[in-house]
Design brief:
Layout lengths: L3 E4 L14 E4 L17 E5 L6 H5 L10 E3 L6 H4 L10 E3 L6 H16 L2 H9 L15 E5 L3 H10 L6 E6 L3 E3 L2 E5 L3 H4 L5 E4 L13 H6 L5 E4 L8 H10 L3 E4 L19 E3 L10 H17 L7 E4 L6
Parallel strand pairs: 1-2, 1-3, 3-4, 4-5, 6-7, 6-10, 7-9, 10-11, 11-12, 12-13
Antiparallel strand pairs: 5-14, 8-9
Helix pairs in contact: 3-5
């Protein structure tokens, strides 16, 4: 039985790693061409490098026939899902639930407040040394709709609580009840969208959410509403969003876009009423300590043959 664990964080920088495994450091390198630290066929646990290009992340997978666990350091696992066909049956795919909630929720709140209070225009005015006071909307008394009410969506609401909102509505794949109130199914979106002043997207990217925010979705948003996306770029139809932004009917604050990275000259860069951050919801000082805790706990479970945390799926003979 193989016991190699490939880590994108140097093993000597992670306290508490369990004994009985052989730890190898591999993060793909700066250009994605870093040599493998050992024979990929001996790898039992592959921790996907963080903030690397797609080809780097999936590069070793086809050469890992004895793999038993793929652990991402992201909340989304769409990159690995696209290569399930190269994985042997019985491989468990786990995400990084618990690692990014704080950082992503902070950014969702930051983008919301910055957009509403006109911070981008203040930055541009400062560069011109121009002092001009203006009136901007407040987050207080607004109705907020959170689309994607998992761990990150819940963390976003935690940070919205002190802002004297009129209402928070929650949407997830299926209906349920929480201590804060009901979570609506996606089927309720048409009725909820016209009431929301701010729509925050924190849903995973999958077949049911790809292109969810399309022309019809955007048309149902009220005039003057703000769309905040900290989910994945492909959740939003970029062409449909551009049309709404250029009309001036709504505004947007986007940490993720489609395509990504957004190329120079793309019309989204200069669309009116849009604030763009370069997919930085996760990479903050909060990431590393939480990532290390996740890895130590997960590898202890793996060594002790206990049920793993955050299991998204287990591959079968058909690659699913």
């Amino acid at each position: 039985m193989t016991s190699d664990v490939w880590l994108p964080i140097p093993p000597d920088e992670i306290e508490g790693l369990p004994e009985g495994l052989t730890y190898r450091f591999w993060d793909g390198g700066e250009d994605g061409d870093q040599e493998f630290p050992a024979d990929p066929a001996d790898c039992a646990v592959y921790v996907v490098p963080y903030m690397k290009r797609y080809p780097v992340k999936v590069r070793p997978l086809a050469q890992m026939p004895n793999l038993r666990l793929v652990q991402t350091l992201t909340a989304g696992v769409d990159d690995v899902l696209s290569r399930l066909d190269v994985l042997a049956p019985g491989v468990q795919l786990c995400n990084a639930r618990g690692v990014h909630e704080a950082s992503t929720a902070e950014l969702a709140l930051t983008l919301t407040l910055a957009s509403l209070r006109g911070i981008p225009s203040f930055v541009r005015a400062q560069e011109r040394e121009h002092w001009q006071g203006t009136f901007h909307p407040s987050l207080a008394d607004k109705s907020v709709l959170i689309v994607g009410y998992g761990a990150i969506g819940s963390a976003i609401e935690d940070r919205l609580v002190p802002f004297e909102l009129a209402r928070v509505a929650r949407v997830a794949r299926s209906a349920r009840t929480t201590e804060r109130g009901p979570v609506h199914p996606i089927a309720d979106l048409p009725a909820l969208l016209p009431e929301a002043d701010v729509v925050i997207l924190s849903t995973p990217l999958n077949d049911s959410t790809r292109g969810l925010v399309d022309k019809d979705f955007l048309a149902r948003m009220k005039d003057g509403a703000l769309l905040v996306n900290v989910a994945r770029g492909a959740v939003v139809d970029t062409g449909a969003l551009l049309a709404e932004l250029e009309s001036g009917r709504i505004t947007a604050a986007l940490d993720v876009v489609d395509p990504e990275p957004l190329p120079p000259g793309h019309p989204l860069w200069r669309a009116p009423g849009v604030l763009i951050s370069p997919h930085v919801g996760g990479p903050t000082s909060a990431f590393l300590p939480r990532a290390k805790r996740l890895l130590v706990g997960q590898l202890r479970r793996f060594v002790n043959r206990e049920p793993l945390a955050n299991v998204i799926l287990t591959t079968s003979a058909t690659g699913v």
